[in-house]
Design goal:
alpha/beta, 7-stranded parallel β-sheet, about 50% helix, globular
């Protein structure tokens, strides 16, 4: 049986790195793609030595839509096929700056949403043709309801969740599974120093939960699981009350 080939986009994030370790432990071949090529290469070398598996790497720029198909083609050229794509790209941005500067808001939206849509359009067409594959999209609980403190980031993640939901329905009939992951607060570079963090999960714990969700072929996975109940309560708060809350 062939070793599975896994493309991880946004590979330098803490969660993506933890997921790469989990897949490498299972014997997968990896292609890591990220904005910081030097750091991506360092991670690739470490995984290759640590797990004695093939690990290649390349660049991914969310806003460079024209390069996304070439990235997919590079994976297939080097490995011959592709089984799993993990999109772990995210940029929290600065909400206050985004409120005043559309260029910054656009950057957050491109990183979290439009770049992922561009890449996954090519992935979906390829998986549909080969009649198998797994897509793991890392969204966020922030996309479940708009909050005044991060609605630009949250709106991009909410849009990504809807995109993944539609993609899941489209591809289900041809053996391709799409998993939407909605992490809560995580101990990452993106959240370091941010106020209001509670029940912060480690990337390794989150990666373990995501791998279990993949194995069970879940459609949506809140990570950790209790965020499902937290967000259910938040979604049920009536709008007249909700808009007065400082969330």
């Amino acid at each position: 049986m062939n070793q599975p080939v896994v493309l991880i986009v946004g590979a330098t994030s803490s969660l993506a790195r933890a997921l790469a370790y989990r897949f490498a432990e299972l014997g997968a071949k990896l292609y890591l793609a990220g904005r910081d090529v030097e750091e991506t290469e360092r991670i690739a070398r470490d995984l290759s030595v640590r797990f004695a598996t093939d690990v290649l790497c390349g660049m991914y720029l969310a806003e460079d839509y024209g390069s996304h198909k070439q990235l997919i083609d590079n994976v297939k050229t080097n490995f011959g096929f592709l089984d799993v794509v993990v999109v772990a790209v995210g940029e929290l941005g600065d909400q206050r700056q985004a409120e005043k500067d559309f260029d910054h808001a656009q950057q957050v939206i491109q990183s979290n949403y439009t770049g992922a849509v561009s890449l996954l359009t090519h992935v979906a067409n390829m998986f549909e043709q080969q009649q198998n594959g797994l897509i793991v999209g890392i969204s966020s609980v922030a996309g479940d309801r708009g909050r005044q403190s991060n609605y630009v980031y949250g709106s991009a993640k909410g849009a990504l969740s809807l995109f993944l939901q539609g993609l899941r329905s489209r591809l289900a009939k041809c053996g391709v599974h799409v998993l939407t992951v909605k992490p809560g607060f995580m101990d990452t570079k993106m959240t370091f120093g941010k106020s209001g963090m509670f029940w912060v999960a480690s990337p390794h714990m989150a990666a373990t939960a995501i791998m279990k969700a993949c194995h069970k072929r879940k459609d949506i996975a809140y990570v950790p699981w209790f965020w499902f109940w937290i967000m259910l309560i938040i979604r049920l708060i009536p709008e007249p009350i909700y808009k007065r809350l400082k969330l």
